[in-house]
Amino acid sequence: MADTASPATVADDDGGLKRSITGRLLFFYVLGDVLGSGIYVLIGSVAGEVGGAFWAAFAVGVTVAGFTGLAYAELATKYPQAAGASLYVNKAFGKKPLTFLTTVTYLSATFAAAGSLAAGFSQYVAEVWDAPPALLVMIAFILLLALLNFIGITESVVANMLMTFVEIIGLVIVVVIAIIYIGQGKADFSALGDFSTGDNVIFAIVAGVALSFFAMTGFENVANVAEETVDPSKNFPIALIGGMATAGVIYVLVSMSAALTVPIDTLAESDAALLEVVKAGILPLSVTAMTLIFAIIAMIAITNTTLVQVVTQSRILYGMAREDVVPAAFGKIHSSRRSPYVALVFSAAVVIGLVVAGDVLGRIGLDVDIVSRLASVTVALLLAVYAGVIVSCFKLRGQDESDDTFRAPSVLLVLGLIGNIVLLGYVVVTDPSSLIWCAALVGLGGILYVVEKVFGSRNPDSADTGAVKGA
């Protein structure tokens, strides 16, 4: 029991992060992140890859993601500390360069995701209010979320739960529209089995899964708040597995609803496919009013997902500072708010830098879709991280275990590892230029590694005692 109790002591009694997230809050944290903005944005793109049976891609994707999530559930009950994949790789292999590579890889993915989400948020704002410049909206958006996280993790998770309820209401509306349409006898159920792409069925599903996978990966983000979870050995596996299973059912139901009510070509060509379901005019309500409501719901969904990204970024940096992998300054927490304020400021600055760079490139006339490019790069980076986590889970079997430790079925972990490798291979083969972007993003993190090597502690035990102290 000592192994799993010691992190709690650090968090509660040694000036560390506050352990205040209950199992119920954690469940909605998982559900909100896995649902996130992806279901509002990605459905059209996945439909374009697969055809009317694109619900199958979401079903397979959430299954592969769920197998990977089992590894996180096991490792988080062993090590209920911030830092997620970076911590697990460090525990398994003890190689600082490999740990740092994992840290930078995942941070690159979260920074890119947050930047693209901020851009998406500004586009929806423009649908309801065209006064503020898009760049100003993006910067204010990131700063406000960083401020909310600084105020406290409990406040952040409660806000996440409330926004999750709003997201679910929007998705329920989509399902209700489909039920009404079916009741009118107009639905064509043959569309649900239509693979209308030029590839065979297997390739079509793999393409759809690779595209949709990013929307289903809340387990890494939630692993980074394990240190702030009450009784993580009990609550973490239940919340993680339950949240992902619930999200998977919702994904499939909403996908089927969209396929039954709107032509697949219309979904594939739309940047906001679920909005097309509302615009179909099936509900006896004003289409204009419903469109406005859905734009607001989409903004809330994007806010929810981005808030989780902001929390994750700061917790990774905080946790790795304690492991003496990144500069110790990232491990400082505010004396009264108990938030990792240095890590928060740094994360916000990087994301703002990304959106500013994208705006500048647009203004000088360079035709580069930064958001689209970083989306595929993000998926490649995440798949590499998830494969590493599953390998780390096997490597750490038999270590730091207690009667309360959750143990994932080995066969499901193997299937998850195979799934991640296959999807990563598909992304690389179909978009080899993504490797160049991945290398460039990870290379930027080398600056932090050099700083730590030159100025960091030479005592491997010093990080846990110095970095967790107050500001």
Q: Could you give the order of the helices and strands? A: HHHHHHHHHHHHHHHHHHHHH
Beta fraction: under 5%
Q: What's the Cα radius of gyration?
A: 22 Å
Number of distinct helices: 21
DSSP strand tally: 0
Summarize model confidence as the mean pLDDT.
79
Contiguous uncertain segments of 5+ residues:
1-14, 459-471
Q: Specify the structural class.
A: mainly alpha
Helix content: over 70%
| C-alpha geometry | globular
Biggest sheet details: none
End-to-end separation? 31 Å
Could you explain how this protein is built, in words?
- The chain is mainly α.
- It is 73% helix and 0% strand.
- Helix 5 packs across helix 10 and helix 15 crosses helix 16.
- The longest helix has 36 residues.
- It is globular and about 65 Å long.
- The protein starts with a helix and ends in a 5-residue tail after the last helix.
- The N terminus and C terminus are likely disordered.
